[in-house]
Amino acid sequence: SSDVCSSDLPEKEAGAGGAAGKPAKAQVITLLDPRRSNNCSIMLSRFGKMPYADIAKAVKTLDESVLTTENVSAMKQFVPTSEEIEILKEYTGDKAQLGKAERYFLEIMAVPKLASRLSALHTKLSFQGKYEGAKESLDLLVGAVKQIRESKMLPKMMELVLAIGNYLNGGTFRGGAYGFR
Known about the structure:
single chain; disordered N terminus
C-alpha cells in the first residue's frame, strides 16, 4: 500500500536507493559556463592524465618539455576571467566534487601573471618559425632588388616603354617626357 513509509522498510532496502547494491555515482559540481567548461576539458585532454598542479608548475617554470606551442596556444584561450576567479574563490564545498575545468582553474589561477606568461612563452616558442618565414621573404625581396639593379635589359625596356608612351600621348601634356631617374 502507499501508506508505507521508508522507516517500515527493512534497513537494506532503504539505504540502497533502488540501485540494487551499486554505489551512487558522485555528483560533479560545475560552477562555470557549461560550454566553456566542456571546451576547457577538451583542451586539458592534450595533457593526458597529467595532474593540474603539474601543469601549473610547468607554466610557473616555463617548462618547454610540457608546454608545446600548440598547448600554450590552447591554454591562452582558457585563462580564468576575474568573474570565474571570484566564483571559484567563493566556493566552500568539497573541491574534489568540482568538474575538471573548475579544478584546473583552481590550480592555474595561482600562477602569477598567467596571461602574460603564456603570451611570452607562446612568442618564444613560435619565434623561430616566424623568423624563418620572414627571412625567406626578405631573401626573396633582396634577390629581386639585386636582379633589377644588375639587369642590362631593364633600362632598355624602360626606354622603349617611354618612347611608346610619348608617341601615344603625342600632343598632350603627358607626351614629351625625356627620361627616368
